[in-house]
Model the fold of this input.
Amino acid sequence: MTESRIPLLESRSATADVNGTARIEIVTATSHEYWEVTSTVITTRTVGTNNADVGPTFRLYLDTDSNAGLIDVSFNGTDDVTDTKYELYPGRRLLCIWVDMEPGNEATVRLQGTRILKGNRGF
Done:
């Protein structure tokens, strides 16, 4: 079975809802690939006046947004980088959740690492 390794640079954004929560769900593009993530970069962008006393908290989960799925957390949920390494296989979900944001502000996650493509037979 052939294998191709190419750079992974995936970026997704979401807007905080009226409760100050932004949520992004990421899955691999096909059943013939998986991702080796080596770096997760998180940022937020303020729209209007930010009156928050504290910054947002960011949590990264695999499959479930409970402690059982927790991969990493940042209590500085803006302009931060985590070097926690993890793999995302077909059928698995990566959940990126920010809380305590100002409603309407934008949150972005960027995944960096390697995208592994396996022939046409999958895993």
Observations:
- The domain at 3-48+56-118 is CATH 2.60.120.340 (Jelly Rolls).
- The mean pLDDT is 89.
- Strands lie at 3-15, 22-26, 33-45, 57-62, 70-74, 80-82, 86-88, 94-99, 106-118.
- The chain has one domain: 3-48+56-118.
